[in-house]
Amino acid sequence: MNLVIREALLAFRRAPLLSTLSVTTIAFSLFVVGLFGLVAVNLQQALRDVAERVEIVTYLLPGTPIETILLAEKDIETFPEVQGAAYVSEDEALRRARRELVEFRDVLRELERNPLPASIEVRLKPRFRDAEHVNEVAERLRGFGFVDDVRFGRDWVENVDRLRQIAAAVGLVVGAAFAAVAIIIIGTTIRMAVLQRSREIAIMRLVGATDGFIRRPFLLQGALKGMLGGLVAVGLSYGAYALIDRWLIHAAFFSREQAVAIVGFGMLIGFFGSAASVGRHLRRV
Amino acid sequence: MIKFTNVFKAFPKGGLALKDVSFHIAKGEFVFLTGHSGAGKSTVLKLIYAEEPVTSGEVRVSGFNLAELRRKAVPMLRRRLGIVFQDFRLLEDRTAEENVAFALEVTGARRSSIPARVMRVLTQVGLAAKAQAYPRELSGGEQQRVAIARALVNEPTVLLADEPTGNLDERATRGVFQLLRDINASGTAVVMATHDLDLVRQAPYRVIELQEGALVYDSAVDDSRDQAASP
Predict the structure, then answer these.
(1) Residues 14-33 (B) with a CB less than 8 A from some CB of A
(2) How far does the CA of residue B78 sit from the closest CA of chain A (Å)?
(3) Which residue of chain B has the CA closest to A202?
(4) Contact between chains at A203 and B106 (C-beta distance less than 8 A)
């Protein structure tokens, strides 16, 4: 077996308590980051669901020929922001109203003439579902001569927008703070492991080991601890998610990439934490 | 082999640990470095194995000029030296054999050659039977033998020993000292710092004495001068 790997693994065997302690510390630090990540992921999902309902309804003047409408529908679908446009005829509008507005079913049934206008319902692509783009598209739709009115929940869209901004800002600040705390705690843990072996490092240097030779097992070990910690953290997060999903609210879990990112984050902190600690230690002895 | 020329060493907090020390140790020599605690014996050794930088003057060791030695080259210098301490400095969680092998592994020695070389030096120091023992299972004398084996395994040209018998009883002291003499007899220079004057008197080796950082006596220089002066 490679000497570096052997030395790195030996350290786990020689100091099982400290190694377990550091992996546990790393795991819980990353678990906190993971929990926050779960909140962020679910908040994002919720906002996406809400934004899903952003829709621009274009009411048409009565008597607009169907050919004109279908042509316009095609035209609208070529807008870069538009995901899809659907024509809703007057009859269809009435059928829907009868189906959805149960309280008024009798009133609607007894109508002699259909008072509902035909419309084109326009849905935007996910990344354009904000106030600015919605306004822009609405403005463009108003330009069609046969359009009577364009409606979209202006307040609704703006609120969703603001919520999204708040979520992003809070996510960034709190996420960065949690990540910083994790980095500090993990760095300290790794430093303890290095200090615990300072006598050994001194002896290595005495018998002619190069700095690189001394450093490599520590780097590997740091990365391994970070990775193990990350895996445990993802496991703990999954446990938390499963509990919440089962007993509280229906929630989403990390995608595979996000889970891998947490483990990778642990590995990176372990690696660079070790590099910093050993480097500092070697410079001093 | 080892040459000090007008060497000064300042303590980091002021004061001098060594004052104008000059001497030359030839290949294969056995030299006692004596003096009271704090006289500068350990400092001399630390300068030789580049643990501390020289403040002024020149130190040459085995072809290296230490003033010009870069940090990266220090391990190369140390691989040519064997170093033994009063407190043995063994890795507690490795067996005698692993401790010795370790000194070879760090130099990148060929893996297949290691076991045989380790066994050879352990036999040389009389510990072949205890190769599998951990330091805590060995007596002080035995631990020092393991340390000596570790120092020898890279076939150094010089063995530096800083109070190697300081922690040992009389019997173990005699054994370790005899071992150092045998090593010297086979051609390795030995520089042994000690304040055990009984030991110094036992053997006809060169003595360098330090006092408060200054070299006050060097038997190689002073005795030949005495002989020249006497009729």
Answers:
(1) none
(2) 5
(3) B89
(4) no
Q: Is B130 left (phi over 0), alpha (psi -120 to 50) or beta?
A: alpha
| Phi-psi map region of A82: left, alpha, beta (phi>0 left; psi -120 to 50 alpha) | beta
Cα(A43)–Cα(A251) distance, rounded to whole angstroms? 10
Q: What is the pTM of this model?
A: 0.73
Please indicate if any CB of chain B lies within 8 Å of the CB of A14.
Answer: yes
Looking up tokens 């940090």 gives B71
Distances (CA, A) of A251 to A232, A257, B62: 20, 18, 71
CB contact under 8 A, B106 and A206: no
By residue count, chain A amounts to: 285
Q: Which of A3, A70, A1 is nearest to A213 (CA)?
A: A3
Distance to chain B for A258, nearest Cα, Å: 40
Give percent helix, percent strand, percent coil of chain A, each to the nearest 5.
Answer: 75, 10, 15
At B101, the pLDDT band (50, 70, 90 cuts) reads very high
How many contacts does A have with B, using Cβ atoms within 8 A? Answer: 42
A192 pLDDT band, cuts 50/70/90, is: confident
Q: H/E element holding A226?
A: helix A211-243
Helix (H, G, I), strand (E, B) or coil at B94: coil
Q: Which segment, A149-153, A245-249, B107-111, B114-118, is predicted with the most confidence on average?
A: B114-118
C-alpha angle with apex A35: A30 to A40, nearest 5 degrees? 120
- Each residue of A97-155: pLDDT tens digit? 888 877 777 777 777 777 788 888 888 888 888 888 888 888 888 887 888 888 887 77
Q: Which two tokens stand for residue B142?
A: 């035995």
B108 — phi, psi (to 5°)? 75, 30
pLDDT at A131: 81
Query: What gap in Å lies between CA A108 and CA B181, rounded to an integer?
Result: 116
Residue B31 clears pLDDT 90, i.e. is over it: yes
B177 lies within 8 A of chain A by CB? no
Using CB atoms within 10 Å of the CB of residue B230, give its burial: 0 to 12 exposed, 13 to 18 middle, 19+ buried.
exposed
